[in-house]
Amino acid sequence: MADPISLTSMTVSLPAAQKSFVQERAAATGCSTPSEYIRRLIHADRVATEREALEKLVLEGLGSPAREMTSDDWDRLRAQLRRSVADRGEAS
Known about the structure:
Structural class: mainly alpha
Radius of gyration: 22 Å
Helix content: 55-70%
Shape: elongated
Strand content: under 5%
Number of helices: 3
Order of helices and strands: HHH
Number of strands: 0
């Protein structure tokens, strides 16, 4: 069984209007606490940041010169994938 998520505290100072807004949005979005609402915002920001990074890489790839993949290229990619999968299995 996996360990439960370990939570830690952080104090954030907000003006009264922002505190009220966070409390209202937490209730309106079905969050049980303002902390849950903030965690969701942070998660959404992380996902957006990762998506932006991926889009940047895709655009860079689209802008790079194209060349036909050789059988050696495919063999190298397969070997990299196998190593990556094996490494993840060892880390578990």
